[in-house]
Specification:
This protein starts with 5 loop residues before the first strand and ends in a 36-residue tail after the last strand. The model has no long low-confidence stretch (mean pLDDT 92). It contains one helix and ten strands, in the order βββββαβββββ. It is globular, with a radius of gyration of 20 Å. It has one domain: Deoxyuridine 5'-Triphosphate Nucleotidohydrolase, Chain A, CATH 2.70.40. By secondary structure, the protein is mostly beta strands. It has a four-stranded antiparallel sheet. A four-stranded antiparallel sheet has the order 2-10-5-7, with no helix packed on it.
Length: 159
């Protein structure tokens, strides 16, 4: 059984398909750039841009949308989602937009309808924070980045 989510398609996405799982085992729905038919944008190296999807979602309470990079864009062009994963809250009703950044060396053209990100719908656990003077001890303790096995050597490599 799947969870049903209401989607409102905006005029600049009228000719685009709704996000879909591209394979039976895919975790994310592909989001597309909704720039208007025949429109494109150029993302220069080190530049970022807010790309509209032309979609508004009504996520059920207790769920979020996680906007994640597409591995193909990252591997081929160095383009990724800047705030990965971006979060779409269940009470947000505006257009879903994706912040892309170009970490590559060449400009990248994003066209209307290009797949730009993935949307993973996930349950959200609500918690209550309780202030405490002490915390239970663990084997790791307060060890930070690299404390679970990555050791930096004098040559600047990890082992």
């Amino acid at each position: 059984m799947s969870t049903r989510i209401a989607v409102r398609r905006l005029p600049h996405a009228a000719d685009l398909p709704l996000p879909a799982y591209e394979t039976a085992g895919a975790a994310g729905l592909d989001l597309r750039a909704a720039l208007g038919a025949g429109q494109s944008l150029t993302l220069s190296p080190a530049a970022q841009v807010l790309v509209p999807t032309g979609l508004m979602l009504q996520l059920p309470e207790g769920f979020e949308g996680q906007v994640r990079p597409r591995s193909g864009l990252a591997a081929r062009h160095g383009v990724t989602v800047l705030n990965a994963p971006g979060t779409v809250d269940s009470d947000y009703r505006g257009e879903v937009k994706v912040i892309l950044i170009n970490h590559g060396r060449a400009a990248v053209t994003i066209g209307h309808g290009d797949r730009i990100a993935q949307l993973v719908i996930a349950p959200v656990t609500r918690v209550s924070l309780v202030e405490s003077e002490t915390l239970d001890a663990t084997a790791r303790g307060a060890g930070g980045f690299g404390s679970t096995g990555m050791i930096e050597t004098s040559k600047g490599t990890s082992s």
